[in-house]
Amino acid sequence: MKTRPLILVTNDDGIAAPGMKALVEVAKTLGEVVVVAPDSPQSGQGHAITINAILRLKKVDIFKDIEAYECSGTPVDCVKLAKHKVLHDRQVDLCVSGVNHGSNASINILYSGTMSAAMEASLEGIKSIGFSLLDYSWDADFDSCKPFLKELMVFVLEHGMEHCKLLNVNIPKLKTEELKGFRICRQAEARWIERYVESIDPRGQKYYWLTGEFTNDDKGDDTDVWALENGYISVVPSGHDLTRYEAIESFKALESEVAV
Amino acid sequence: MKTRPLILVTNDDGIAAPGMKALVEVAKTLGEVVVVAPDSPQSGQGHAITINAILRLKKVDIFKDIEAYECSGTPVDCVKLAKHKVLHDRQVDLCVSGVNHGSNASINILYSGTMSAAMEASLEGIKSIGFSLLDYSWDADFDSCKPFLKELMVFVLEHGMEHCKLLNVNIPKLKTEELKGFRICRQAEARWIERYVESIDPRGQKYYWLTGEFTNDDKGDDTDVWALENGYISVVPSGHDLTRYEAIESFKALESEVAV
């Protein structure tokens, strides 16, 4: 580890979110910190980027003695702007995203702006960790998370990351003494059972609002959902290659049998 | 194959895009078609969903004799609304998304609304194909693509899909006689070299606009980028499990050595 590693901090709940504050407070004990985060909540933005509109980037004085910028775009936009307009050629040693207010375990990684920001950094070759606490409340107890945030960041800074550049870390809503430790997992094959609440606006037009419940039929004890339900902090080494290699053979008939 | 399979059609370029029209025209020769697509262009939306705002859904008469709806949300919102507010309990046999104006090969799958819509359907257990033509022009020649769209849709309807529910299909911008056929591939490990164009708005404030070039250092001849550069239609069996299984062992030390 360098004496003062450079740590980029971002999130999807917006630069003023309490989860971001906790992450900054931990990161600054380990290295030089630069924050580039959305100027408004961006939950559910997934890997969205802004290509058909402009972006703003504004230096702000939110965190004492920390270089920080708010950005008008998505979490992924923040990482791209951080790289090109804030950090330029400075080598980033670690990107941390979060701490998200609510779970990003299982398939939530796909919808999560927190995880997409971390993944975007990993696409640039930067070691990245996305953190989430299983508590949607704005008043969630992020202070209790700090020792775990620090241990993971230190581990990655000291050991590096083999075979992947991205960790999806979820912390259960438990008292510290109830936590059993870290557990390295795979992403659970869970899903959302959703519905739309229908209503009528003041002009008489129908509108819809998404709601739903997360459900897990994946009974493996090696999944992140299992870990969280059993008192562990889940750590899923993650990537961006969506190829299903085991399916390639089953489509090979297309190459030979179907005439183009 | 059922006599009249039910085919859901969506995209990210908006319901009025020429690529959508081509896809509908092919799909209706194979089965009953329902279209639910964004009311405006949604490129780069990735897997974004609308959770902090309302959604609108409006029946439109764009395609002759085809049930069609435009939605105010993202491509993923369209698929969720299609399932819950349009199709209800009707079993969808195939979801096709596109034809996208421009490539979604390699890591573009992450940013692509076209592919995220198809992936969302696959998360619901629906066999899905995302189609893209490597021509960003609104006047691109989608008619030449139609035979290939049809062959792939027929193949999936007849053979089903083993080990995956999602295909990422990209078609090179070539004359039909120059095309060499389908090639089953993995996602290339390519990347974008990006920059932000800086300018000043009429009120004197700086703004940024993303631009960049796609570049591929992955020299494998089994990638989608290789296939496209060599005259093939690339077909990548894809999924949504981001776990890097090969990395799990390297983080196991966290479980034992780091005290929580």
Which key phrases capture this entry?
homodimer; 260 residues; alpha/beta; Stationary-phase Survival Protein Sure Homolog, Chain: A; nine-stranded mixed beta sheet; 7 helices; 11 strands
Structural write-up:
2 copies of one chain form a homodimer. Chain A is 24% helix and 28% strand. With 260 residues, the first copy, chain A, is α/β, with parallel strands linked by helices. Chain A has a single domain (6-188, 220-257), classed as Survival protein SurE-like phosphatase/nucleotidase (Stationary-phase Survival Protein Sure Homolog, Chain: A). In chain A, the strands form 2 sheets. In chain A, strands 3-4-2-1-5-6-7-11-8 form a 9-stranded mixed sheet, with helices on both faces. Chain A has a two-stranded antiparallel sheet with strand order 9-10. In chain A, helix 2 crosses helix 4. The N and C termini of chain A lie far apart (55 Å). The model of chain A has no long low-confidence stretch (mean pLDDT 94). At the A-B interface, helix 2, helix 3, helix 4, helix 5 and strand 7 of A face helix 2, helix 3, helix 4, helix 5 and strand 7 of B.
Outline:
By secondary structure, chain A is of the alpha/beta class. Chain A has helices at residues 18-27, 75-87, 108-111, 113-123, 146-159, 224-229, 253-257; strands at 6-10, 32-38, 57-60, 67-71, 94-101, 128-133, 166-171, 181-184, 191-200, 206-215, 232-238. Chain A contains 7 helices and 11 strands.
